[in-house]
Amino acid sequence: MTGQGQGQSASGSSAWSTVFRHVRYENLIAGVSGGVLSNLALHPLDLVKIRFAVSDGLELRPKYNGILHCLTTIWKLDGLRGLYQGVTPNIWGAGLSWGLYFFFYNAIKSYKTEGRAERLEATEYLVSAAEAGICSWAVWNIAWCPSVYGI
């Protein structure tokens, strides 16, 4: 009886190794790092964009004469903390979505090139990118935001 259980276990682990042999976690880490760092670098400009979008002429909101005026006003009023107001959810979102995208993209490319001597065609790279986008969208939106989709 134990021999049969071990046989099932061995074939089960072989199935998992077949599925996951194309997975490289380095790509996930690289995507997360890139998403987080780009968000940290550009968040003040995103904040300026939002400030301009909500500055609809009401007297309650501050008036800005341009991007630099907006940045310096925020800096003078709130300092560095003001420039990075609301950065945490953006870091989570960008890091996880880019991490998942690179994870899936490289796994899909690796799967498609297995056993091939030649490189992928340009259209195959584009299709791989689209498939990775769909996979990361599905994991991000459906797994982490199920209430939005009625799940």
Automatic annotation (TrEMBL):
Subcellular location: Membrane
Solcar repeat locations: 22-111
Any one of the GO BP annotations: transmembrane transport
Keyword Repeat: yes
Listed InterPro entries: MCP_dom_sf, MCP_transmembrane, SLC25A32-like
Swiss-Prot/TrEMBL keywords: Membrane, Repeat, Transmembrane, Transmembrane helix, Transport
PROSITE patterns linked: SOLCAR
GO terms under cellular component: membrane
Bilayer disposition of the protein: Multi-pass membrane protein
SUPFAM superfamilies in alphabetical order: Mitochondrial carrier
Homology family: Belongs to the mitochondrial carrier (TC 2.A.29) family.
Designated name of the protein: SLC25A32 isoform 3
